[in-house]
Amino acid sequence: MTAKKTTKETKPSTVIANDPEAWKGRLKHIGGSQSDHWNNILANQAVQTLWLKHSDNESRDRQYEATIAALVGIAPKDELEGMMAAQLVAAHNAAMECYRRAMIGEQTFEGRRENLAQANKLSRTYAALLEALNRHRGKGQQKVTVEHVHVHAGGQAVVGMVAATGQPGGGDVSKFEEQPHAKQTTRQIPHAPDSALPGPDPQRDAMPVAGNGERALPNAWRQGARRR
Fold first, then answer.
1. Residue 178's domain spans which residues?
2. 112 with 150, same domain?
3. What pTM, to 2 d.p., does this model score?
4. What pLDDT, on the 0 to 100 scale, is given for residue 128?
5. pLDDT tens digits along 77-124
6. Three-state secondary-structure class, residue 120
7. Are 114 and 179 in a shared domain?
8. What span, in angstroms and rounded, lies between the C-alpha atoms of 58 and 215?
9. Is 87 helix (H, G, I), strand (E, B) or coil?
C-alpha cells in the first residue's frame, strides 16, 4: 500500500490597484482613505483591540458601534491620520483595561503596581499619538517673532509681531500686538548725538551798550527819529 503525497499549490494573488469600485471612498470618514478596502481593514483593526471577554452580544455590538463612532469623530483626512486614529483607540482601550485591572481587589500589590505602570505608559503613548496627529494637521504650532525698537530721545516704540501658523481653517493669521511676556529679540537703534547749538556769528559786529543800560542805536536810526 502506497500513500499518495498531495501538495496544495498556491496560486499567486493578483492585486488590482485601479478598481473603480474600490476607490469610491464611501467610508473615507472612517479610515481617511479613498480606498474602502483600507477603511474596512482599519475599522476591523480598531474593533479587534476591544476587550470582549465578558461582553454579551448586545454589549459587543455597542462596543463595535462606539469604536466606529470614535473613528468618525476623529475624522481622519488621509491614511496617516486614519492609522493614528486607530492607534489612539487601541491605546485608550488598553490603558482603560489596565486601569480596570489595577482596581481589582483580589490581587497582589505587585500586580496592582504593574497594571498602573502599564496604564501610565499607555497614557503617555496616547498623548504622544495625539500630539503627532495635531502636528500633522498643523494645530498647536505658533511662531512668535517679537522686535523691540528703543528710541532714547524722549520717544518710545514697542512693536511685537505675532504670526500664528497652521489654523484649523487653513492659512496664516498675523497681527501686531505687544508681547510683554514673550521671548524678545531686542534691536537697538544707535542714537545720533544732538547737533550743537549755533554759536555767535564771528562776522557779525556786536552792538555796544550804553552805560545807562540802553542800547546805542546806529546813527542812521537816530537821524530818522529826529526827522520824525
1. 143-188
2. no
3. 0.56
4. 97
5. 999 999 999 999 999 999 999 999 999 988 899 999 999 999 999 999
6. helix
7. no
8. 117
9. helix
**Cell 503613548 maps to which residue?**
125
Query: pLDDT for 204-216, tens place per residue?
Result: 555 555 555 555 5
CA angle 154, 160, 166 (to 5 degrees): 175
pLDDT tens digit sequence for 125-178:
999 999 999 999 997 556 656 555 556 666 655 555 545 555 444 444 444 444
Structurally, how many domains does the chain consist of? 2
Q: Is 32 within 8 Å of 82 (Cβ atoms)?
A: yes
Burial class (CB in 10 A: 0-12, 13-18, 19+), 79: middle
Q: Going by C-beta distance under 8 Å and a sequence separation of 6 or more, which residues neighbour residue 30?
A: 39, 42, 43, 68, 71, 72, 76, 82
Residues 205-216 as b or e (16 or more Cβ within 10 Å = b): eeeeeeeeeeee
Query: With 0-12 CB in 10 A as exposed, 13-18 as middle and 19+ as buried, what is 156?
Result: exposed
Contact criterion met (CB below 8 Å) for 31 and 42: yes
In a domain, 1, yes or no: no
Instruction: Determine the 3-state secondary structure of 186 from DSSP.
Output: strand
Cell of 45: 483593526
Residue 158 belongs to what H/E stretch? strand 157-164
pLDDT for res 65: 96
